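Homework-ish question, so no full write-ups if that breaks the rules, but can someone show me the predicted structure for this set?
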Amino acid sequence: AQSVTQLGSHVSVSEGALVLLRCNYSSSVPPYLFWYVQYPNQGLQLLLKYTTGATLVKGINGFEAEFKKSETSFHLTKPSAHMSDAAEYFCAVSDGIAGGTSYGKLTFGQGTILTVHP
Amino acid sequence: EAGVAQSPRYKIIEKRQSVAFWCNPISGHATLYWYQQILGQGPKLLIQFQNNGVVDDSQLPKDRFSAERLKGVDSTLKIQPAKLEDSAVYLCASSLDPGTVYGYTFGSGTRLTVV
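A: Not a homework solution, just the prediction itself:
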C-alpha cells in the first residue's frame, strides 16, 4: 500500500520568503509523485509531477520539487513567496508501473495550508 | 480544451435522502475517477473506471454508494441513503493515460452538505 505524509498542516511565511512544504511517501514500487494546489471552492490544479528522469522537477508559478529516493521525500519549494500562493497544497503518490494495482490511483497526503503575510 | 464538468456545484440534503452527482470528462479520456474529500483531509479515491468498466472500487461504501459510466463517457455517482459523514466535496477526474506528464484533470467538485 502507498501512503503520503505531509509534515505540517499549516505553514506561514512572509511575502518574499522561501516556501518549503514537506512530503514523505511510502511505496513498494517506483512511484509517480505529484504536487497539487487547491484554492478555496476550487478543484485541484497540478503544480508539478515526477515520473522518471531528472529528479529536480520544475512546475508552474515558480515552484519546484526534488525527488530523493534515499529519503523517500518530495519536498516542494519556491524561492520567494507571493500573496497569491496562499492556498492548500497536496502531495500525492501513484504506482509508477503500468498495469500495477495502483496505476493511475492517486493517494493524497492530508494537505498543508500555506499562509503568506505581507 | 474543455475541462472536466461536474454538477451540481453545491447540494444540501437531509440525512437518509438520496443524491446524485454528474461528471462529464474531457473528450477522449478513457479513465474516470471519483474522489471524496472530507474537510481537512486529502481526497480519497472512491472508484476508478476504464472506459465503462470498473477498475477499482475497493474504497466505495457499496451499501449506500453506487456509480456508473454508461457508454464510457459521462458518469453518475449516487448516495442512497445519505449519512451525516457523507458531507464532503466529491471530485471527478479524468485522464487519457495516467502516465503522461499531465495525465490528470480534476473538475471543480460538488460540495455536499448532509444535515
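Now go work out the reasoning yourself. Hint: The two ends of chain B are 37 Å apart (CA to CA).
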